[in-house]
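Final report, closing paragraph on structural work. Over the funding period we assembled a curated collection of sequence-structure pairs, and we close with a single example.
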Amino acid sequence: MRSITRAGLRAIGLLAATGALCAAATVPAMADEPGTTWQPELSEGTGNGVVVSPDGARFDRSTAFGAPADEGDTESSADPAGVVPTGLLTLAPRTLDTPTREVDSRLVADTPPGSTASVDVRGKRAGGGWTEWIPAQDSRTELPEAVTEVQGRLVLTATGAADPTVRELTLTATPGSGAESGPATEAAPRSYSVFATREGLVGGTTANGHKIVDRDRFVALPSRRALSANGKTDYSVKVCAPNGRCAIAPVWDIGPWNTKDDYWNPSNQREMWKDLPQGVPQAAAARNGHNGGKDQFGRRVANPAGIDLGDGIFWDVLGLKDNSQVQVDYLWTGSQRLSAIRTEGTPDIQILARPEAGAESVGIAVDATEVPVQCTSGAFVRIGDGQYLPATAFTGLPGDVPACDAAAPSAPAAPSPAAPTAPDAAPAPSAPGTPAAPPAPGTPATPPAPDTSAAPAVPDASAAAGGSPAPAPAVPTAPSGATPSAPAPSSSTPSAPSAPSAATGPGAGAPAAGGATAGTPSPGSTTATTPATGVPTGDNQAARVTPGSAQRAPSGTS
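Its predicted structure, as stored:
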């Protein structure tokens, strides 16, 4: 997503529910009710698209962000109807005397026609991480668990000639019944197999204000609920390619396609698309006919992407040459112990295949990200099966981390309800031209294949329609500390990303620098087969190359 001052941009417009638009909207003072009430100092906030003056926090068009417009002959060339530039201002957190799960937010704001002002709220969990940002509904936010630290974020948008200004924000935390929540047992983060595209857009600006550099190392997810602030790593993922290489990187952008699709959450908690199974991105379901094959903005979805990868992650760390199915652990969703790493001035640190100096690298962890800690092996810490970091790389480790040889393996807690899996579908391999049979499990760079036996079988939508076999599904897996391997092929082979042409050009592989222009089809890409019509169950995810391969799937407005 780029600054709206650049040509050819569309805003991602991250809208929360708002009241009627008026030239001056002043919210009445709060009624007397128990709880802790405070007014965050607006001048202490940080963010993009908002400037603070003595008059309050004002929307700033010069730094507001938006999504890139399509710049090529792709299926999604139609722009959304409206352009909604958006600014975010993250305010200072507040420590409470008593735990809370409900926070009331009252704004005193000027909202001229075509503008909005709203609030997101999050809380710090017992394990030290943050909940996701929850948009206030009718001025009230309900957090997923009791917390004793709360933080607010202003969301300002403007499509008219005048800009909104927030004069004052008042937050009230209602004391909850019972003590602060604390996990009784450690549960691994949610983990799903989704289709990945390359973000590119070097020189552009992400939703949190980060300026994209050559070979950048971050990811984008299609919801602002898990957007880290610029330079922060509150929300990070571990993403692994079928070749066994993994990257732990922060979420710094919003996309692809949708902007309110927190598909990793249970269906009834999703901001949109509550009719889809957990773990299935709406773009993947759209490829099988959901919402008429279109995203939330009415654009025809050209690929089933559920995550965008910065060029450095896509090319250099994971070694991908084209869009690919990947396994993603959404690290903030579990209750596993996480510890922050430090890289002593370098952008990232190598993850080693064995607990010894000089062992081969199987991936990287970006500086300041918090990684799962399983056990210690001498001077090394295991963060996954066949994945180790030196203990000196951590800013601090829990005092009760067991030794790996003394740690009895235990099954992690079961994930939230998983998406059903088609009986004969399997994710496509990432590297074009790789053999159908994956490497044998157990090698350092290839951890065991995820177990999907618990997922109920459902009819194949494409087969029922008399078409070709169903494309690869979005496969939710039982989360574990282990890195997933390339899924085993089935008797019904799904469509796989096409191999690059022998005469490769930019986009067929990793160029020397930079990235392909968004919207430019890669040599060797093929047009996907038209998906089956009708509203599917969301189980079949199209893991195939479409026009505009090896590039990000564009986001839209909200």
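The chain has a mean pLDDT of 73. Residues 311-317 form the longest helix (7 residues). We thank the funder for supporting this effort.
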